[in-house]
């Protein structure tokens, strides 16, 4: 028996009735021979992990734009924390951990430079609108692998697309949605305390009395609440959900809309606008991949694809090269 077949057999013995089994995948957009060693979901995880878009996440903003410190979260560390939380929940509920991990690793591949500020700006510029979860699917379908895409399974693609505001077809996809929320609220609190924007004592006492006074305690309480409700329901208890929602409102009022930690977003937005207008007027300056994409999806979409794929530092460097005068020299 092949190692893949042994893993598939073990899934049938171990996983619960609500799990998505690798040997029952709805398949890929283009059929390919199965791997001897890995299940279809394990292959998807590895494709995402080795992609260019995944590596670029390390230089993309989570909340704080280009922070002066090494310990603030980036989009990559956020993704890894989501993956860890999602896997913990999936393992405890006997759901498919490989599928969960693949969705988690791929869920934010379409995020723009400068975080949600970049996403909002591109949404205003792109005639079709722009949403990072849709862009994540475009990345794995049309942009990665020099425009050939990663050819992921239906279940992974569905989970990536629906991780923000829709219900995934699989329980594993919904686990990632919950893990995303659990991760970002708590690591954003951690980063905001580090930045001096808030202190631990500022957090609403009604929430911390239920969830805990440390990041670890809060994550444990939220994760345990999901697990305690079981794979059939996949939700937090009403009490824990209410405490989470209180914490969420606090973060929006004191961090996500805070003019201190958002002071550079106007500049970032203007930078993206200028890059977009530049490529509108100088379309030939786009790399060849995006010119090819424009033949299928139109010029505006291709420009958005290119800018969305930029890291914060690459976007700034590109802007400087295009718009900032350089000192003249004969030599």
Offer a quick outline of the entry.
This protein has helices spanning 3-14, 40-49, 52-56, 75-92, 97-106, 115-125, 132-143, 154-161, 171-195, 205-211, 215-233, 238-256, 265-281, 288-297, 299-309, 312-323. The protein is mainly alpha-helical and 331 residues long.
Defining traits:
Hypothetical protein af1432; mainly alpha; single chain
Name the helix and strand elements from N-terminus to C-terminus, one letter apiece.
HHHHHHHHHHHHHHHH
The total count of strands amounts to 0
**What is the straight-line distance between the termini?**
68 Å
Shape estimate? flat
For the sheet with most strands, the description reads:
none
- Determine the structural class based on helices, strands and strand pairing: mainly alpha
Rg over C-alpha atoms, rounded to the nearest angstrom: 21 Å
At CATH level 3, the topology is Hypothetical protein af1432
CATH architecture label name: Orthogonal Bundle
Would you identify the CATH H-level superfamily? Hypothetical protein af1432
Mean pLDDT: 95
Q: Which CATH first-tier class would you pick?
A: Mainly Alpha
Uncertain segments are none
How many domains is the backbone divided into? 1
- Tally of helical runs: 16
The proportion of residues forming helix, as a percent range, comes to: 55-70%
Strand content: under 5%
What does this structure look like?
The chain has 331 residues and is mostly helical. The protein has one domain: Hypothetical protein af1432, CATH 1.10.3210. Helix content is 62%, strand content 0%. The protein is built from 16 helices and no strands. It has helices at residues 3-14, 40-49, 52-56, 75-92, 97-106, 115-125, 132-143, 154-161, 171-195, 205-211, 215-233, 238-256, 265-281, 288-297, 299-309, 312-323. It is flat and about 70 Å long. The model has no long low-confidence stretch (mean pLDDT 95).
């Amino acid at each position: 028996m092949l190692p893949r077949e042994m893993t598939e057999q073990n899934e049938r013995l171990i996983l619960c009735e609500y799990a998505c089994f690798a040997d029952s995948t709805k398949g890929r957009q283009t059929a390919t021979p199965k791997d001897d060693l890995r299940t279809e979901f394990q292959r998807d995880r590895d494709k995402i992990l080795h992609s260019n878009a995944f590596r670029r996440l390390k230089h993309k903003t989570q909340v704080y734009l280009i922070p002066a410190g090494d310990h603030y979260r980036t989009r990559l560390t956020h993704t890894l924390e989501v993956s860890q939380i999602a896997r913990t929940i999936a393992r405890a509920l006997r759901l498919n951990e490989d599928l969960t991990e693949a969705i988690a690793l791929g869920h934010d591949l379409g995020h723009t430079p400068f975080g949600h500020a970049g996403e909002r700006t591109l949404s205003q510029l792109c005639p079709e609108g722009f949403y990072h979860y849709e862009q994540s699917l475009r990345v794995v379908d049309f942009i990665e692998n020099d425009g050939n895409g990663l050819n992921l399974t239906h279940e992974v693609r569905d989970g990536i697309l629906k991780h923000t505001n829709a219900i995934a077809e699989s329980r594993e996809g919904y686990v990632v949605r919950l893990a995303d929320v659990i991760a970002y609220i708590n690591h954003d609190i951690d980063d905001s305390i580090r930045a001096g924007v808030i202190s631990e004592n500022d957090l609403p006492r009604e929430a911390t009395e239920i969830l805990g006074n440390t990041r670890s305690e809060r994550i444990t309480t939220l994760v345990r609440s999901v697990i305690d409700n079981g794979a059939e329901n996949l939700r937090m208890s009403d009490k824990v959900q209410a405490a989470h929602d209180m914490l969420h409102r606090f973060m929006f009022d004191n961090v996500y809309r805070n003019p201190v930690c958002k002071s550079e977003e106007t500049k970032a937005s203007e930078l993206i606008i200028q890059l977009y207008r530049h490529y509108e007027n100088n379309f030939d300056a786009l790399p060849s991949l995006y010119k090819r994409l424009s033949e299928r999806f139109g010029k505006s979409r291709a420009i958005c694809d290119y800018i969305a794929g930029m890291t914060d530092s690459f976007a700034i460097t590109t802007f400087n090269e295009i718009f900032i005068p350089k000192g003249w020299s004969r030599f």
